[in-house]
């Protein structure tokens, strides 16, 4: 019976747990960005609202990618409980500062996961998380470039409107 249980999953309990913890982080990111989208919409920052709505969708896709991987390898993915999502934010710039902080935190999490996979000799999962690590390069880059707009354009006068209009043009070509 014990052997049968072991055969059921290709993931160790440790790796399954850290992947489930990351499912929760991605779900938290998704909910946070949706909250930011609503706040931006309320502030009349329509492009930023769309930007964050799209980010929220992407984070949910990340969550599902991890979720499906856990189940496909014989583990049990856990639908996470998400709490402490703010409804209010201090400032336009602050929202993007928090975005960059969140993305840097996510990068650190995936670095830790890769490290644990390496130590556990789980090279299949190690390989799986490389996609996320590459994705993080883009997400941090975009957040940093958007923050630069606040310095270059400034928020005075029509500045906020200009920043909102320009930030959707920030793209990452990976070169
Ligand atoms: Fe899924 Fe932006 O990390």
Question: What this model shows, in words?
Answer:
By secondary structure, this protein is an all-alpha fold. The chain has one domain (11-77, 89-169): Ferritin, core subunit, four-helix bundle (Ferritin, Up-down Bundle). It has helices spanning 2-8, 13-42, 46-72, 92-119, 123-153, 159-167. Helix 2 packs antiparallel against helix 3, helix 2 runs antiparallel to helix 4 and helix 5 (123-153) packs antiparallel against helix 6 (159-167). The N and C termini lie far apart (52 Å). The protein binds MU-OXO-diiron. The site of MU-OXO-diiron has 7 residues, from helix 2, helix 3 and helix 4.
Write a brief caption for the model:
This protein is mostly helical and 175 residues long.
Query: Helical stretch count?
Result: 6
Question: What proportion of the residues is helical, as a percent range?
Answer: over 70%
The CATH topology:
Ferritin
Radius of gyration: 19 Å
Low-confidence stretches: none
Backbone shape: elongated
Taken in chain order, the helices and strands follow as HHHHHH
Question: Which architecture would the CATH scheme give at its second level?
Answer: Up-down Bundle
Organism: Sphingobacterium griseoflavum
Family: Belongs to the ferritin family. Prokaryotic subfamily.
InterPro entries: Ferritin (IPR001519), Ferritin-like (IPR012347), Ferritin-like_diiron (IPR009040), Ferritin-like_SF (IPR009078), Ferritin_DPS_dom (IPR008331), Ferritin_prok (IPR041719)
Keywords: Cytoplasm, Iron, Iron storage, Metal-binding, Oxidoreductase
